[in-house]
Design goal:
This protein is of the alpha+beta class and 821 residues long. It folds into 5 domains: 139 residues, Jelly Rolls (Sandwich); 95 residues, Immunoglobulin-like, CATH 2.60.40.10; 316 residues, TIM Barrel (Alpha-Beta Barrel); 103 residues, Sandwich (Immunoglobulin-like), CATH 2.60.40.10; 75 residues, Sandwich (Immunoglobulin-like). It contains 14 helices and 47 strands. Helix 3 runs parallel beside helix 4, helix 5 packs parallel to helix 7 and helix 11 packs parallel to helix 12.
């Protein structure tokens, strides 16, 4: 396009504070740390304790610069605007020495007029960044009251500026105060008006949806401009009379027998292409036709909280999302797709974008649209208190004026949430200041709500996560009668996993348990001489103060101590999976009282011990494989209630009737069958049913330390969809059980380009895990129970080209009994 210039590509980077202004190459979109690393100017911050060696750069001022050519034809347009997004954070942009923009909020979009600064031929653009840390300190001095920030961040006062909080570190995150621009900088020439936003308004009737496509244009002056809309095979042209400033141009479309957009597991995530064009610009969006409401109504348990999509009540299953990498240059579309596809494959239908991170890129939400992943969208406030003066609130208004209007067209977007844990923070920093903290919180929070009501009135604004709902600032860490809950008594409180049975949340949007990354990942950041969980490097990659103590302390309650470093890492992942499995399965068995389980967290932003189910780099932990099972559409659940009665539930999230058979077999640890129960049921859509309460007499002669139950559920719908779910129940902690050493055998075969691993055993084996160090990929299942005489075939899908020979050479197997002698 002759009216469009993309400034992405190679720039130069320098700082007057570093090596006498030495200049190195840099990429934008990108960040300064990635450029420094690529130039060999710093060691890898993710390796060893190198994080400590690169902190000086966060106090420097940095400059990115490049030259670019401007054709004369571009300057013939009425206006040439520079599109600036994700400018981090205090950046001033100069074109040919003329200042065209000074930014102070990385969550805003800026579109300055730059035509007067341009010239035909060669031009120079320069971006000067101040130190966000030093600017935050200046802001603290300007405040009339103390505004505390959460101690997870190692950089003070980031709550006073609009930058990603976790750039300053978190209890899972590296401290890396990156600077740069993380979205393409572009120049566009337009006549009369530019397109700022496009969205749709939908009216749903029986077998028909009326779609109003809305284009929001910003006009330089009054005049007429033709806007063309194309949707669902129809094209409509509107010649609009524009006034100076903001304008809305509309076109109406009717879709008969629409293909609705459904969350993952409930139907197709169908999308329609909407194209809006003027003679200067074209905007394309993928639109999903669906209804969504959050049902918050009094009931027998308190007040409900669940999401109703297209009239169907959805049990939400998923995890919390943090930024995908501490170095933004590494967050490519392929990285996002890999993580989000992993969520989809694990039967997740919702992610919560956490408020200490960032509003994610357009690519992120586009992928969620396509994969049927609902998004609970926090606004970017977390765990701290915030200013409530007019200057700060106005900056936030501008931020949300952009973010809400940018994202509202996405069918994946389910909820706007004001913050993460800020209601709680009003009482964390001195009970004597709680009232005044709440007043200031309310002042800002009301403005957030007003912005949603103004720009996205069809979506609910949820004040905070956790909270009891609109106008209910309850204790969401302990009150399970309403709203969403963050339940941390198991990890932070040190309670046993059975504590999950003591709460019955309406929607649990955050709970978690830590583990170490796999040995393969550890080897990427830890030298061999430090292969010990208490070594300096391993300690450095454990950002939670009590992390190792919590992991090891819980080992003592459930397991025998592992006898090697590698098995220590493995067992931590077993324990993590068991913890989250316990909570999720019980809460699913409470449906419809509980209608959502979102565990902390899906991903890491660097290699670290954390609560993530996917390691940095995309490798699935055991938890992610267990999540695929405990989030399956139809599951069988066994648990002992508070009276020690064994309960069996059958849970379906499907929108159709399901016929199911359930087999529960008690085995001893040699694999001998001790007792069998065969059950069947016809489940209604979305039904949770207590299938059986086991009588004491039915289990009386079973030694709880010497047996386990293998539960197999097979379900089938009238349309022929078939589901199989396997579950293993232990009566006693594993450490009390006399598990047998199993002779595990693995055979690898290749069929039509697919790899299959056939597993057999002579004794029951638990948490049997296959690994392929050096060959990234995903197994169809993993961390499974194996029984004698019952071979299991697992398909392996590599993420890079490999061979049968390489796979056979690399494949490793482990199980619980192998962790000790």
């Amino acid at each position: 396009m002759e009216n469009f210039i993309d400034l992405s590509g190679e720039w130069s980077l320098k700082s007057a504070d570093w090596e006498h202004g030495r200049t190195i190459p840099a990429q934008l979109p990108g960040d300064n740390y990635s450029a420094l690393l690529a130039a060999g100017a710093i060691p890898d911050p993710y390796f060893g304790c190198n994080e400590t060696l690169v902190q000086e750069f966060r106090k420097y001022e940095w400059e990115f610069e490049r030259e670019f050519d401007v054709p004369t034809s571009l300057l013939e347009y009425d206006s040439v605007y520079l599109n600036v997004e994700q400018l981090d954070t205090f950046g001033t942009i100069f074109i040919n020495g003329h200042r065209v923009l000074t930014g102070n909020n990385m969550f805003r979009r800026y579109r300055p007029e730059v035509k007067p600064a341009l010239k035909p031929g060669r031009n120079v653009i320069r971006i000067h960044f101040k130190s966000a840390e030093l600017e935050a300190k200046k802001e603290a001095l300007r405040q009339k009251r103390e505004i505390p920030m959460n101690g997870c961040s190692k950089v003070e006062h980031l709550n006073l500026i609009r930058k990603v909080h976790c750039h300053g570190g978190w209890d899972w995150g590296i401290t890396l105060m990156v600077t740069g621009v993380y979205a393409p900088l572009t120049l566009t020439g337009v006549n009369l008006a530019r397109i700022d936003y496009v969205h749709t308004e939908q009216k749903h009737e029986k077998k028909r949806v009326t779609v109003t496509a809305v284009a929001e244009l910003s006009a330089l002056r009054s005049g007429r401009k033709t806007v063309t809309f194309t949707f669902n095979g129809e094209t409509k042209t509107v010649t609009a009379s524009l006034k100076k400033g903001e304008n809305r141009v509309k076109a109406l479309f009717v879709v008969d027998n629409p293909k609705l957009w459904w969350p993952n597991g409930l139907g197709e995530a169908s999308l329609y292409l909407l194209t809006v064009s003027t003679d200067d610009e074209t905007v394309e969006q993928e639109i999903g036709l669906r209804t969504l409401e959050v049902v918050n109504q009094p009931d027998e348990y308190g007040v409900s909280m669940y999401f109703r999509v297209n009239g169907f009540d959805v049990f939400c299953k998923g995890a919390d999302w943090i930024p995908a990498d501490a170095m933004p240059a590494r967050v490519t579309p392929a990285v996002l797709d890999d993580l989000l596809e992993s969520a989809r494959l694990a039967n997740m239908n919702m992610l919560r974008v956490w408020g200490g991170g960032q509003y994610e890129s357009e690519e992120f939400y586009r992928l969620c649209d396509r994969k049927g992943l609902l998004i609970w969208q926090d606004m970017m406030f977390a765990c701290s208190l915030y200013p409530s003066n007019e200057e700060f609130i106005e900056n936030v208004r501008q931020e949300l004026n952009f973010q809400i209007r940018r994202l509202r067209h996405h069918p994946c977007l389910a909820l706007w949430c004001g913050d993460n844990e800020v209601i709680g923070a009003t009482r964390w920093y001195g009970e004597d200041k709680r009232l005044v903290n709440t007043i200031h919180y309310d002042r800002l929070n009301r403005e957030l709500a007003r912005m949603v009501e103004t720009f996205d009135p069809d979506r609910l604004f949820w004040p905070s996560s956790p909270c009891g709902g609109p106008n209910n600032f309850n204790d969401g860490w302990h009150d399970d009668s309403c709203g969403d809950m963050h339940y941390w008594e198991v990890w932070h409180g040190g309670r046993e996993f059975s504590a999950y049975y003591s709460v019955k949340p309406r929607f649990c949007s955050e709970f978690g348990y830590q583990s170490f990354p796999s040995f393969e990942t550890v080897k990427r950041f830890c030298p061999p001489e430090q292969f010990n969980v208490f070594s300096p490097v391993m300690d450095h990659h454990q950002k939670c103060v009590r992390g190792n103590a919590s992991i090891i302390g819980m080992f003592g309650k459930y397991f025998r101590m592992p006898e090697s470093f590698e098995n220590f890492l493995y067992l931590s992942q077993v324990q993590q999976a068991l913890a989250i499995k316990t909570g999720v399965e019980f809460w699913r068995s409470l449906k419809p009282r509980c209608m959502g389980t979102i565990f902390w967290q899906l991903n890491d932003n660097w290699p670290v011990a954390s609560w993530a189910s996917i390691e940095y780099g995309g490798k699935w932990k055991q938890l992610q494989y267990h999540a695929k099972r405990f989030f399956a559409p139809v599951i069988g659940v066994l648990y002992q209630d508070e009276a020690k009665v064994l309960q069996l539930h059958l849970v379906s999230d499907l929108p159709v009737k399901t016929a199911a058979t359930v087999t529960a077999v008690a085995y001893d640890f040699d694999g001998n069958e001790l007792r069998r129960f065969d059950l069947s049921a016809s489940l209604r859509p979305n039904e949770n049913r207590r299938l059986k309460s086991f009588k004491a007499s039915e289990l009386a002669d079973l030694d709880p330390d010497a047996c386990f139950i293998e539960l197999v559920t097979v379900a089938e719908t009238a349309e022929g969809r078939r589901f199989r779910h396997e579950n293993t129940f232990f009566f006693s902690p594993f450490k009390r059980c006399d598990l047998r050493k199993a002779a595990l055998q693995v055979q690898v075969e290749e069929k039509d380009g697919h790899y299959f691993c056939r597993l057999t055993t002579d004794k029951p084996a638990f948490f049997v895990t296959l690994d392929t160090p050096g060959i990234p990929g995903i197994f169809s299942d993993n961390s499974v129970t194996l029984l004698p005489g019952v071979p299991v075939a697992l398909e392996f899908t590599p993420k890079r080209k490999t061979s049968l020979k390489e796979l056979q050479k690399t494949l490793a197997v482990n199980d619980l009994r192998n962790t000790y002698n």
